[in-house]
Amino acid sequence: MSHRSPCAWFAALALVPLLALPSACTDGGSTGPPGGDGTANDGTDGGNQNGTGEIVYQGTAATTITYLDDTGGLIETKSYATAMEVILDDPVEANGTPESNPLQLVVGSLHAHEATDEGHYSIWSAQSFTDAQDNVEYILQWWALERQGNAITGTLVDHHTAEAMALNLINAWADAYGVPIVWPFVMTNGTTLQGTITDSQVALRFEGSSTGGTRRFVSDLTATR
């Protein structure tokens, strides 16, 4: 993912129906992350702790995916090193209603052209969307986050597959009638996050599985600014 064009993540993965695009993608040409101007905030606020706007970190994720068959049998375990970006911003808001988290957290591929590669993943705590039919803005929230000092924890509480808006995904290989392909697996509810956020660095661990349970993953991401 690149903070220069967050809407490209959606286009690359072909995940968002045309009737519901992130508000940042329908605001007349925004080229930065949701709520931001495409540049890192130079404040010294301890990693957005005081809600001063967008902060961008870049680094690497070391991810292990355990591949299981439909019966729970082990197929293989693979490890990946991927260039990633972390964006912290003020909680998103729509029609005067903000997300319930202390901040908005977005994680994804540093380079948009790698967003569909095996081992890459995307994390969205919440996002505002605009219904293109009636121009009504609303919020979807996926994660419940808690912040105490520099420590952050969280749980994926609603993957929103019912709305066809699952944006917390991990790319892994899949068998399509004997042909291996890379597929964005939806992270299941109960996927966890724990780590630390400072003004200069984030260190996050994500751990969970796909909704079907056949792709289990652990990812340790360290990024700096």
Description:
The protein has one domain (7-32, 55-224). It is globular and about 50 Å long. With 225 residues, it is mainly beta. It has one helix at 7-13, and strands at 20-22, 55-68, 74-89, 93-94, 97-98, 104-109, 121-124, 126-131, 136-141, 143-148, 151-156, 169-176, 179-186, 192-197, 201-209, 215-224. The longest helix has 7 residues, at 7-13. The chain has an eleven-stranded antiparallel sheet, with no helix packed on it. Mean pLDDT is 82; it is low at 1-46. The chain has one helix and 16 strands.
Number of domains: 1
Give the strand line-up of the largest sheet: 10-11-14-15-16-2-3-6-7-12-13
- What's the helix-strand series? HEEEEEEEEEEEEEEEE
Structural class label = mainly beta
User: Strand count, sense and closure of the main sheet?
Assistant: 11 strands, antiparallel
Shape: globular
Mean of residue pLDDT?
A: 82
Number of helices: 1
Radius of gyration: 17 Å
Strand content: over 45%
